[in-house]
Design goal:
Length: 302
């Protein structure tokens, strides 16, 4: 007569069955806003107020986010200034899709390196780490059991590909239900010799009746201006920049970002969206303009 299974074996079996059954549980019926308010956590390295996401802090994003879950809407275009929550809006849509309505997804930025790599490490990885419902579904890059990389995140029901608009091989080869086009105004006119990169990714959605395409951009100034007032430093309660040379209105040439006292570097990245459209330079370059270019010198921005 066979021995009965031990308590430990039964416990292991129950855990395995419970884990498998979770994949058959129908998703909750909710909007992106409801999902974000319930599940999304903001990471300390990317938010002045880390912790649970609260849509009421940025109520102007609610209608845009909830359009993502409207079955009648397939295309969303957003043009807005920087630092108003556009990236978090995209991350909420992305997190909702991974957790509640999965499918193959592509997030496209102007170039693969450094922007796509930086975005994956600084924004997507912390969101997955700090939002439990995503952490349970997307394996860590460092896990030996993970097929995930910096540019590819697999999850039940799909995979997220993070790439640049300058990478025609990725844009033209991966079927996608969800496409995010970030900083569209900074994309190259052609992906190599393959033509308009947006048209390339658009073609990847053809087989999905429920596709979503989201375009996000931060319009920058263009035209002829002249050098205006100069300031050795400008800033607020948490950060500052050095050697600010006015272009027009609230647009400046200025240094990388320092703390409020101007003593410690907070962010030394260049070529990545941080400010609201100013031209951010290495501190030495900003100082050279500040010291050497006189007021009323013409400035041409194309």
């Amino acid at each position: 007569m066979k021995n009965l299974a031990s308590d430990s074996e039964i416990t292991k079996l129950n855990k395995a069955v419970k884990k498998a059954a979770a994949y058959f549980k129908p998703p909750e019926q909710m909007t992106v806003t409801e999902w974000a308010d319930k599940y999304r956590w903001l990471s300390a390295e990317n938010s002045a107020e880390p912790g649970r996401w609260k849509t009421n802090r940025t109520p102007y994003l609610k209608e845009i986010m909830d359009a993502f879950t409207d079955p009648k809407i397939h295309r969303i275009a957003v043009a807005a200034s920087s630092q108003v929550g556009k990236t978090e809006m995209e991350l909420n849509m992305m997190g909702y899709a991974i957790d509640m309505d999965p499918g193959p997804m592509m997030f496209v930025v102007p170039n693969t390196k450094p922007i796509a790599e930086d975005f994956s490490k600084r924004r997507i990885a912390p969101m997955i780490r700090d939002t439990k419902s995503l952490r349970d579904k997307v394996a860590d890059v460092k896990s030996r059991e993970s097929n995930n990389t910096i540019f590819n995140k697999s999850y039940p029901g799909g995979m997220l590909t993070i790439t640049g608009a300058n990478s025609p091989s990725n844009l033209a080869s991966i079927p996608c239900r969800y496409v995010f086009g970030d900083e569209r105004d900074r994309w190259p006119k052609s992906a190599g010799t393959e033509g308009d990169p947006w048209r390339l990714v658009e073609a990847r959605t053809n087989t999905f009746y429920n596709y979503k395409m989201i375009e996000v951009s931060t319009p920058t100034i263009k035209g002829v201006f002249s050098v205006g007032t100069k300031y050795p430093a400008i800033g607020g309660d948490t950060s500052s920049v050095k050697y600010a040379t006015n272009i027009v209105d609230d647009y400046y040439y200025h240094s990388i970002i320092y703390d409020a006292q101007g003593l410690t570097i907070k962010d030394d990245r260049l070529g990545v969206e941080i400010s609201h459209g100013c031209i951010r330079l290495a501190t030495s370059s900003a100082k050279w303009i500040y010291d050497n270019i006189p007021e009323r010198t013409p400035i041409i921005i194309n």
